[in-house]
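Agenda item 2: IPE complex prediction
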Amino acid sequence: MSLKHIAIIMDGNGRWAKKRHLPRLLGHRAGVKAVERTVRAAADFGIPYLSLYAFSTENWKRPQTEVKGLMSLFRYYINKKVLELVKEDVRLRFAGRIKELPKDIQEIIHEAENETEKGQRLQLIVCLNYGGRQEIVDAVQKLLKDGYKGEVTEETIRSHLYLPDLPDPDLIIRTSGEYRLSNFWLWEGSYSEFYFSSLLWPDFNKEALQEAILSYEKRDRRYGGIQR
Ligand code: IPE
Ligand code: IPE
Ligand code: MG
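Presented output:
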């Protein structure tokens, strides 16, 4: 069964740190290592699109120190990884309300997108200040701003989403034993398959990704039709 796009809700960094009596930020740092492993694994498994939920529009509610720490991590990591991603033929893209992020991060993001633009092996989509409801609101706002007067269809909405050319996620994985969407890919995920892993995100690895893929391959996607 075709598997083009895997989306991951990377959850459990805080609990991973807590278990070790470490500050939450060290959990996020360990989470970055899991990102690196997972990107490599997805490329090895021939998955063309991988999207990662890194920061939700609701995550601003966290203590300022944590938010700041996460922003520094994004700043450092994106900058540091670009050359490596170019070498590995990976295209990096971002989805979310980018304009609300600190200015220097916006610049880093645009640079990273430009520099990795030719990547063919894997598209890595980082959802940063992303919210599914906000994405739909933003799509409608764009339509209104464009003065769109035609009939509004699914395609009209879709073509105004953050990344209109991105195929819908076939599989959404959430780690840390939580069973909810937390405002991720609301429009795009309407027919996604779900896989829940009890691993905390910093412990996620290639084997765990493979298990999720194997589980996906056994599914029967009916899209409202009948079993084939
Ligand atoms: C996910 O880990 C990372 C982000 C939301 C940025 P959490 O920070 O939510 O970890 P838990 O859920 O507190 O364990
Ligand atoms: C979802 O995790 C957001 C990201 C992984 C970036 P949260 O930890 O923020 O979700 P809730 O609050 O438990 O629903
Ligand atoms: Mg969490």
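Discussion summary: The chain has a mean pLDDT of 97.
Owner for follow-up: CH.
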